[in-house]
Amino acid sequence: MGTRGGGTGLPPFEAFVERHRRTVYRFLLVAVGPGEADDVFQETFLAALRAYPRLRDAERLDRWILRIATRKAIDAHRSRRRRPLPAEDAAERADRAAEPIGSWDGDDPLWRAVRSLPPRQRAAVVHRLVLDRPYGQIAEALGSSEQAVRANVSQGVRRLRALLSEGVGR
Amino acid sequence: MSVPRWSAGLRRLAAPAEERSRRQAARPGDLAAARGLLDVGVGEVDTPIGRLLVAVTRRGLVRVAFSEEEPEAVVEELARRISPRVVRSARMSQARRELAEFLEGRRWRFELPVDPSLARGFARRVLAGAARIPYGRVRTYGELAAALGAPRAARAVGNALGANPMPIVIPCHRVVRAGREVGGYAGGPERKAWLLRLEGALR
Q: Which domains, from first to last, does chain B contain?
């Protein structure tokens, strides 16, 4: 059938999703926000699924999926107008739109501040402060140098601090 | 305001991830199928003889597993032997419907296409032979071996049937011991007897 696994040592995609879904979603919730996290999550794992049988290295799958998620998050930011995914019908979408977002919403001052960061800076801050990833891995995810990432993070943090000190007072 | 405080705030923003990602994780199968990226879809169906795990490729049904088999192990095997692109998918309606109808006594034959990838060589011939036994009839291992032109291969026939990747749909339960004793079954002799009673082949 032209789809033989041939001993790639890769876990079933199903298991791979289960293993990494939470980390990817945590990243996306802050990097693109609750309104778009679902779509970007699906795009991330579909892109992964497309490339999956060609992967050589069954290790470092965590870094690989976060690299894809980072790219998708930055792209999502660039093309604000997202096309609906085909397998989701109108009812499902409406259902999703109606659901409470959890402990926060679009008016959360912290989220407003995060949203004002430029996309790469925002991604770098989330990798560092939410996922606690080392600078080297963040650089890999962003396709830039460690030095640039350190600068991204410190600028982002400085900016957040400035925005939030104006009257949020937590 | 210190950085650690913010990371706490940011982590709070990420808190709903567990629940929301669980819901989202169920969807890639359907999206993948829609985009032609799905090599193996797996799903489950509840039947009178327990929960069955069902797997389908683009060619057709490839695997049916009884509840005694560890689902993770079955999925692992599919990933290893067919493709690592194994995804849970709701798009297996035909397989699920036909199995449910059959086990409720409302269907006598399966129409869904079958993908024999998991059986090779002689085993595949044996399964094809078993598939030709009509509903409600039985053959002995020896009879099936003879029908395949290998009258002395009754034991090999038994082994091939024991490894049937698609029990129920490929009716290996219709092959019994000489003297019409029910004989062994991967899903246990009770299930085999249940299936034969369902078909009226055993009282």
A: 3-103 (3.30.160), 121-198 (1.10.10.10)
